[in-house]
Amino acid sequence: VSPDEEGICSGKYFTEAGLVGLLEQAAASFSMAGMYEAVNEVYKVLIPIHEANRDAKKLSTIHGKLQEAFSKIVHQDGKRMFGTYFRVGFYGTKFGDLDEQEFVYKEPAITKLAEISHRLEGFYGERFGEDVLEVIKDSNPVDKCKLDPNKAYIQITYVEPYFDTYEMKDRITYFDKNYNLRRFMYCTPFTLDGRAHGELHEQFKRKTILTTSHAFPYIKTRINVIHKEEIILTPIEVAIEDMQKKTQELAFATHQDPADPKMLQMVLQGSVGTTVNQGPLEVAQVFLSDIPNDPKLFRHHNKLRLCFKDFTKR
């Protein structure tokens, strides 16, 4: 419904019944999309209208649908699937306006990188010719000077929704973590001498956080990236993150209901098995055997010690 059309205010939608009809359609669509929490929000607008009209029949239908929506939330707990997200960058003059643009694509749940890669390769391969199109396999920053000007390049990276710590207080349920998303993150491991992976004490990590111009879910399934920031983690910070992740995995495996012994065994093996050369034991030997000389590292040193305290408790 656009305001500049002639006669829009006298059209059939611009009435109370028209509004009610549109809202009912919206609720039905949200229900089909499995976004039952949003169904509730739409009905919050509809209920007062029917209450004012004393329309008990409509109200009873709505409350029936609300009951369905909420019971689905309860029954599908842990089984709901929303999108998988990928960052896609386009490089090369052949793309015209798209050159050097980056987008976040929302794909159906559990889409593998290979699937979206295959699809985009096919689509742009047909447009430019398969010999012209090249997919960049890593997620390192692209240096335009090193690219062949006669080719078109696509870089595809799996990204995850990113939240600040304060946001996590409000984003409690699985739905909260998959709705109204504008920031996404991917990590790239690197070492100072150019290799991706190295020993523990030389392993850095680059976190790239992308902000899109609109929030997902959106009318379109791709939204352009308007802001990009990078955080570099030093080797000890990488170790802290790894230890926190291991501790979380342990906590999850020990509190699972019903208990899952296979899962627990896998997590435990990864945590205490000495076969893994970069397991917790190695981390402790590399970073905690000496107190660092640099006072700037004291905080990290203490934080890692606290991580180990947590870890041993688990």
From TrEMBL:
Q: Which GO terms describe its biological process?
A: axonogenesis; small GTPase-mediated signal transduction
Q: Which InterPro entries match?
A: DOCK, DOCK_C_lobe_A, DOCK_C_lobe_C, DOCKER_dom, DOCKER_Lobe_A, DOCKER_Lobe_B, DOCKER_Lobe_C
Q: Which residues form the DOCKER domain?
A: 1-314
Keywords on record? Guanine-nucleotide releasing factor
Keyword ATP-binding among record annotations: no
Any one GO molecular-function label of the UniProt entry: guanyl-nucleotide exchange factor activity
The Swiss-Prot or TrEMBL record describes its family as follows: Belongs to the DOCK family.
What is the name of the protein in this document?
A: DOCK7 protein
Which species expresses this protein natively?
Balaeniceps rex (Shoebill)
